[in-house]
Specification:
By secondary structure, this protein is an alpha/beta fold. It is built from eleven helices and 15 strands. The strands form three sheets. The protein has an eight-stranded parallel β-barrel with strand order 7-8-9-10-11-12-13-14, surrounded by seven helices. Strands 2-3-1-4 form a four-stranded antiparallel β-sheet, with helices on one face. Helix 6 crosses helix 7. The mean pLDDT is about 95. The structure holds phosphoenolpyruvate and manganese (II) ion.
Length: about 350
Amino acid sequence: MIIVLKPHTDDRDLEEVLRRIEEAGLRPHVSRGQFQTIVGAIGDETKMDPERFRGLPAVASVTRIMKPYKLASRDFHEADTVVDVCGRKLGGRSLAVIAGPCSVESRDQLMETARVASRAGAAFLRGGAYKPRTSPYAFQGLGTEGLEYLREAREEFGLPVVTELLDPRDIDAVVAVADVIQIGARNTQNFRLLTEVGQTRKPVLLKRGASLTVAELLMAAEYVMSEGNHQVILCERGVRSFDPSVRNMLDLSAVPNIRAASHLPVVVDPSHATGRRDMVPPLALAAVAAGADGVMVEVHPHPEDALTDGPQSLHPEEFEDLMARLVPLAELMGREVSRAEAADV
Ligand code: PEP
Ligand code: MN
């Protein structure tokens, strides 16, 4: 960390800065210029809070040298993390497709979607039993009944399950069924929830909040990892934009951006990014071309009857068509596509 003092500061100001650096267990290095003094703090910067310095009247600026996240950073862990869920891998050379309805609506709806997903070669089944809805009057999900259907579909089709946890009070019920716990975009900075899932040993799919920077997303991952759970999958699902013709704006630059900064696998969700079925296949393919480790898409047997996110859900034949194009593209990109039959659920 580099702390620049304002011109004409006296020794007492400098001493206070040095004291606070030493208090944090770091070593100060003072460089005195003709007008200004610059102090370097040498040691593990993650232990030092820049706010301890910014408030001092003699301090002009505080600049971090290291990234504020450590466990999530590629600087400290060079090789790609590969998250292995029942033999389905995400990260490194492996790519996986996660498919399923937005919400679990009924036993029949989920079983039918799981059949489509497994037949077309998806590696995971997704579906929300607890739904984060903007309106309290909208369908909130089937809760424990939905989890029960997910358990059945998992057993019948051998597809590991990705499902969202909204509230720490439901953690035991969700952990009992989920192979991957999803943290939705509205909860990326729900720090208590992140701490709770960090204390489990289930892989976590952490979605990027609609207005979060990549650094903030990686800090959220750091919350989970600092509790000892290092199996974190990051998910880009679009950010807020000015254009109402799409639900969000897919930030595909986040894929190489995150992959440069972090070793964690990155998945792209073009369904929530666009809200438009017609845009899902081209952007799913673009995500693979951009280097994503996985793609998550919503599929529904009858999207016109869906209780949530029908307009962005693919029809079964559209999903099959997407998979037929995605697999050869992924192979061209040097990826091995995790598939249903390779699983050991
Ligand atoms: C979802 O994937 O079910 C969902 C609600 O997405 P997001 O949190 O990205 O809006
Ligand atoms: Mn949805």
